[in-house]
């Protein structure tokens, strides 16, 4: 358990840093925000998923507000990304890779933290996915993009796989650094394969609905 | 009280199923999402209002995370809607009717649960409305529509009426299955009459402001 | 301390009223909503920041749901703004000024309330900013504008300054009505100077990224 105790924050901080970089690059690309806007979007992306998780499991105040390292890594990642963005010809690939890192790590941490707060297996899976996709969903909503969780090739599914591996290894008593890294790696690989090959889940057919006009 | 105890989850689950169907059909129509996106939007719509309610009244973890039936009905509704969507020529009317069902039921449940957690009458009314409109507001925001609560004919008002009937019957000791169903039915009828007749609350006049350009 | 105890609600209610007016005027201008939509957006803007703050510090149910004056001032402000909007040739300046008032007051209250709930200095600063910008961010998201906190000249920075003055005066034992009003005034002045002179934080250069196309 002591290994797990030390592991949780380290992985969590890694995901925080990745999402800080990611959110900031998104801010540069999607909306050409100034440095304060870049910092704000980076921090919201990095800290949003964990805050939602902690509110839902009753870990109040959220870990983010009790450990200054979260703020430093989120803000530091955002500022580094802001500085680097002028050197990058293309922001798309770094944004995608960093998002996949945050998604993978946060799904593992979210599921294991939910279990450690006494939630059952099903809710822990849900909390893993919510933690993984939460920050990015807020990020996309704020810059007025359709959220990745709704539209991206294999986004929620790898998060669910990572959460399932985490729950499985915790329940069988083999959870630890290797298991957590393995679960995150599986999520990362599935996500990146989905991006690379443009894999999509089935879509509804176009017939029939095309006559339908929005009534809102 | 034992009747009420059994009633609350049953009505809550009915609203969850209706909103799961609704959110999924919205996903098909508004954004042509794949099956994972449809499932995600259905579940967010179905579970969002109740989660917000439970966070605000301190019912942590939310009921959604303690009772697997919420997840099953939300996900099942979303998948059924995905499968059925190819058979529907028009999605507008099912979306509107299902949304009205969820709105009605959740407004009643939200108000009564708030009272059972010790909130006063005013806050219980507010919680009823928030529970009723919460999931749909998140749904609309994620697919970048103006939320129904802001723009639709008679949307928040029937929710408030249902919450008021609920609070009134709880306070006078006659709350139970008939009262809850009656309150929900009144909300549903007002909402559907509003849709059918295109009823609108007063709007601001157009004079004067047309010279005004956004400054943000 | 008794002064502070009486002061907190009074300032909080002032900010609530200002944001109620602001949100309602935004609803009139941005989306020509009907009176219910105007009321809803006014109340969400006025009450959103405080509700987020209270959820994050564990003050459940939020103060908003325990003190009817918040609802009355938020709703009253929204209705007054709706009535006045037909008399205003231009809504931009009142919207900006009222938003600055709410931002200033809520940043001070958020920081001091966080400290009174036992949070450390860093988290209290964050909570101040979150309380100040929270309602407006929800407001902008719902009417599909880029949030002020991401795009506006000097928005998060004055909020942070107000929170810092608040934390500094609380920690040195000189917090009270004059300190709170002073902190809010400094925030208000910085914000309005930023608007007046169009001050901007540094933006990323345009070179390099222009070749980049969104991949989402």
TrEMBL record, chains A, B, C:
It holds the Pfam family Gly_transporter. The keyword Transmembrane helix applies. Keywords: Cell membrane, Membrane, Transmembrane, Transmembrane helix. InterPro entries: Gly_transporter. It is found in: Cell membrane. GO terms for cellular component: plasma membrane. The chain crosses the membrane at residues 6-28, 35-56, 68-84, 91-111, 117-138, 150-170, 176-199. Coiled coil: none annotated. The keyword Transmembrane applies. Residues 10-85, 97-168 form the Glycine transporter domain. It is a multi-pass membrane protein. Belongs to the UPF0126 family. This is UPF0126 membrane protein. It comes from Amycolatopsis taiwanensis.
């Amino acid at each position: 358990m002591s290994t797990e105790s030390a592991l949780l924050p380290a992985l969590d901080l890694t995901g925080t840093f990745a999402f800080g970089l990611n959110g900031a690059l998104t801010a540069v690309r999607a909306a050409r925000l100034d440095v304060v806007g870049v910092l704000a979007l980076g921090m919201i992306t990095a800290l949003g998923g964990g805050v939602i998780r902690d509110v839902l499991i009753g870990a109040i105040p959220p870990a983010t507000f009790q450990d200054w390292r979260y703020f430093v890594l989120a803000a530091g990642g955002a500022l580094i990304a802001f500085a680097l963005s002028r050197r990058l010809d293309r922001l798309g690939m770094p944004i995608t890779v960093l998002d996949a890192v945050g998604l993978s790590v946060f799904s593992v941490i979210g599921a294991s933290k939910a279990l450690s707060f006494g939630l059952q297996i099903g809710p822990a899976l849900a909390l893993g996915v919510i933690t993984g996709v939460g920050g990015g969903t807020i990020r996309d909503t704020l810059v007025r993009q359709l959220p990745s969780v709704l539209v991206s090739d294999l986004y929620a599914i790898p998060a669910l796989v990572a959460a399932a591996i985490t729950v499985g290894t915790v329940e069988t008593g083999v959870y630890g650094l290797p298991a957590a890294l393995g679960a995150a790696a599986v999520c990362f690989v599935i996500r990146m394969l989905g991006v690379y090959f443009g894999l999509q889940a089935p879509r509804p057919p176009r017939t029939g609905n095309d006559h339908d006009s929005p009534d809102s």
